[in-house]
């Protein structure tokens, strides 16, 4: 009951403190906005590159985010490629090595070969974006085209969804994938991912999600499934069968041979938090796990018979614990 | 339906997650309304020169007044339609007849007897840079759409781009591009470029690969004379070809075509323009002919095509002025070589009555919609 009240407080306080939607009341407001957009375009055009897979021939976009040439792109752009040809808006051609990718977030990294210094954009944050915030999208739609610079699209945040995906009305099409969504300060806040037939539904992988997968991608790990798949045998698990109750997630069963079993979890334990993140829903658990791989250690806060306990658990592969789910 | 379902899932999942975002669509709709109200101030001169063009009961395009009872519109959207008419500001239907066309620009000039409209004043679009705010203004002064300048003026004609006439090896070796084949009679052939030559420099700049070389050549344009350095059997050779026009049409993948198709209608004629501005403003096929203004209210061009999900093409005003310096080609109807302007429909008056009734019905409908909205 106390937990419930606590949750509702957590929910309603931020809702009341939501900043107002950016307002445009007259032509001079629009002119100010136009100046901001044009500045973003001027400063960020050369950071927006086209990426072509030399082996598969598929082409997408990317954005350089560090002086030494780190590129953010979409996971489906670098899928099955070890190297990408990087084409700058002026036609200059370079090479990049593919680093890691979290397919569930459609997030990936590559690194320009060569010392640089490269032009780069600053990395922003997508969680602080609000509905109605103005944004600028760039990319190389339909592949690199020598007759133009990356076409500019202007729009607003229309919605936010799970796993830090952001929906805008900046229209995108094939080839834009992996390209940057900028806020009005020119910071990368999203990476173009997928679209719906409705022109107002253009989805971008939010930068906050990129940040939570950053280290694993940087060291070259590849994991997850495009669109997400709860039955992915390579998904990391604790080895706990949980039941949702009014007070939170309660352990129903602890399968033998799983990491939670060896750590001494018992049926009836109430899971409170993982790596400091409060867990009350299975969805929240999946969100925390989306950035992790089997073999990584997590800190589990739980309560047993009124006392608070903490254990560190090494995550296992889903397919290794639940053999019948192995494909 | 699928989308609605998807939206419901989105909304419900976010509701569960943190009771928000509250009424996302209400928020964005209200914001859009605000922006469109602010844009009215930019449409004051454009609204005076724009007229709807109807065929039967359907609006098929807009036209911009050239004075002397003439309207300028997109040719390919109207030439095959019968019974063209417009409506003046008193909502009286006026017949429109095709005087002639500018095929290269896909423009048509209509004669509208009785039309009293001011002459459009085109402004220079050349000083606008990417990200400039543009809007398409309707006769009622509202913006039909707002967008930004996505790509500056450029030619969409491949013939304007430089063509050397070699097939390039896309294999990346890190230094130069190998010539896989030489097209007979091409610029490359004329200066003796041969198969297996390695192009290492163009205009003194080292070439790393296929994209660099192709970009350089295509930006050099038809008639360009770049100095090219190549390696043949370890020897360095220099040649100076005169580039020809590119006649190769770029193929578009079926997947991309499908993406464009699923995202709304596209104009039948949407490519091959000699000079256009690309914008991301979301218009429909029947919005061709709308005047485009910048935030200062200057009329910088006319919508010439809806060209896919991300693209609306705009003919810059200065290009229109240049095109109109010549007389349009007479428009010929299929039945015989008789000019339509000489052929006044026999049942003109009956048609006009019917159109006026149609217009009245449309007005009634819009009035009713207004009332329902109240």
Quick overview of this protein structure:
The complex is a heterodimer of chains A (327) and B (374). Chain A contains seven helices and 22 strands. Chain A has helices at 2-16, 27-44, 75-78, 207-218, 259-262, 282-289, 318-321, and strands at 48-52, 59-64, 70-73, 83-87, 93-102, 107-112, 122-123, 134-137, 153-160, 165-168, 180-182, 187-195, 202-206, 222-223, 236-237, 241-244, 249-253, 270-274, 277-278, 297-304, 307-314, 316-317.
Structural write-up:
The complex is a heterodimer of chains A (327) and B (374). In chain A, 20% of the residues lie in helices and 33% in strands. Chain A is of the alpha+beta class and 327 residues long. Chain A has two domains: 20-226, Beta Barrel (Thrombin, subunit H), CATH 2.40.10.120; 236-325, PDZ domain (Pdz3 Domain), CATH 2.30.42. In chain A, the strands form four sheets. Chain A has a six-stranded antiparallel β-barrel with strand order 1-2-3-6-5-4. In chain A, strands 8-9-10-13-12-11 form a six-stranded antiparallel β-barrel. In chain A, a hairpin with a 2-residue loop joins strand 20 (297-304) and strand 21 (307-314). By secondary structure, chain B is an alpha+beta fold. Helices cover 25% and strands 29% of the residues of chain B. Chain B has an eight-stranded antiparallel beta sheet. In chain B, strands 8-9-18-21-20-19 form a six-stranded antiparallel β-barrel. In chain B, strands 11, 12, 13, 14, 15 and 16 form a six-stranded antiparallel beta sheet that branches. Chain B is elongated. Chain B starts with a helix and ends with a helix. Residues 1-21 and 336-349 of chain B have low confidence and may be disordered. The interface between A and B is large, with 72 and 68 residues.
């Amino acid at each position: 009951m106390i937990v419930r009240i606590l949750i509702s407080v957590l929910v309603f306080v931020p809702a009341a403190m939501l900043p107002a939607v950016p307002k445009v009341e007259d032509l001079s407001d629009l002119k100010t906005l136009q100046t901001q957009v044009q500045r973003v375009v001027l400063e960020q055009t050369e950071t927006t590159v086209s990426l072509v897979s030399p082996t598969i021939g598929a082409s997408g976009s990317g954005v350089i985010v560090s002086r030494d040439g780190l590129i953010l792109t979409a996971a489906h752009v670098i899928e099955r490629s070890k190297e990408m040809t990087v084409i700058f808006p002026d036609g200059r051609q370079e090479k990049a090595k593919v680093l890691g990718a979290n397919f569930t977030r459609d997030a990936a990294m590559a690194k320009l070969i060569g010392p640089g210094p490269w032009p780069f954009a600053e990395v922003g944050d997508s969680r602080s974006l609000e509905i109605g915030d103005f944004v600028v999208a760039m990319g190389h739609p339909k592949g690199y085209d020598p007759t133009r610079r990356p076409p500019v699209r202007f729009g607003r945040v229309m919605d936010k969804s799970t796993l830090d995906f952001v929906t805008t009305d900046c229209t995108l099409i094939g080839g834009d994938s992996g390209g940057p969504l900028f806020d009005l300060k020119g910071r990368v806040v999203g990476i173009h991912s997928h679209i719906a037939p409705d022109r107002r539904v253009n989805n971008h992988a939010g930068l906050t999600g990129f940040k939570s997968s950053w280290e694993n991608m940087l060291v070259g790990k590849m994991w997850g499934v495009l669109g997400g798949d709860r039955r992915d045998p390579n998904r990391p698990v604790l080895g706990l069968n949980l039941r949702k109750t009014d007070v939170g997630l309660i352990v129903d069963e602890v399968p033998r041979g799983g990491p939670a079993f060896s750590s001494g979890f018992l049926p009836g334990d109430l899971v409170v938090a993982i790596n400091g993140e409060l867990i009350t829903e299975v969805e929240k658990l999946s969100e925390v796990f989306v950035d992790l791989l089997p073999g990584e250690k997590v800190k589990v806060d739980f309560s047993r018979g009124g006392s608070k306990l903490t254990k560190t658990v090494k995550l296992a592969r889903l397919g290794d614990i639940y053999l019948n789910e192995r494909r | 339906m699928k989308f609605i379902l998807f939206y419901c899932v989105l909304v419900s999942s976010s509701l569960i997650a943190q009771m928000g975002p509250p009424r996302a669509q209400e928020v964005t709709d209200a914001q859009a309304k605000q922006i469109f109200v602010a844009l009215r101030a930019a449409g004051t001169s454009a609204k005076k020169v724009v007229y709807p063009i109807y065929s039967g009961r359907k609006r098929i395009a807009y036209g911009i007044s050239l004075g002397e009872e003439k309207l300028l519109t997109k040719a390919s959207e109207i030439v095959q339609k019968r019974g063209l008419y417009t409506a003046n500001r008193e909502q009286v239907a006026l017949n429109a007849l095709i005087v002639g066309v500018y095929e290269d620009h896909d423009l048509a000039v209509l004669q509208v007897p009785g039309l009293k409209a001011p002459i459009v004043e085109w402004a220079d679009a050349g000083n606008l840079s990417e990200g400039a705010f543009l809007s398409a203004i309707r006769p009622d002064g509202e913006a039909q759409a707002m967008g930004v300048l996505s790509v500056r003026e450029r030619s969409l004609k491949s013939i304007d781009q430089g063509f050397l006439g070699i097939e390039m090896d896309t294999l990346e070796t890190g230094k130069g591009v190998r010539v896989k084949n030489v097209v007979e009679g091409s610029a490359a052939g004329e200066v003796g470029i041969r198969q297996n030559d390695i192009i290492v420099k163009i205009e003194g700049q080292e070439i790393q690969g296929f994209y660099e070389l192709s970009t350089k050549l295509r930006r050099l344009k038809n008639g360009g004379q770049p100095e090219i350095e190549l390696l043949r059997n370890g020897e360095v050779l220099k040649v100076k070809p005169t580039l020809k026009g590119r006649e190769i049409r770029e193929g578009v993948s079926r997947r991309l075509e499908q993406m464009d198709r699923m995202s709304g209608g596209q104009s039948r004629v949407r490519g091959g323009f000699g000079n256009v501005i690309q914008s991301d403003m979301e218009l429909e096929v029947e919005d061709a002919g709308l005047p485009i203004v910048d935030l200062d209210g200057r009329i910088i061009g006319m919508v010439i095509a809806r060209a896919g999900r991300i693209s609306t093409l705009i003919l810059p005003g200065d290009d229109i002025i240049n095109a109109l310096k010549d007389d349009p080609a007479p428009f010929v109807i299929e039945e015989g070589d008789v000019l339509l302007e000489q052929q006044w429909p026999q049942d003109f008056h009956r048609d006009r009555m019917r159109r006026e009734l149609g217009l009245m019905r449309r007005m009634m409908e819009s009035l009713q919609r207004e009332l329902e909205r109240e």
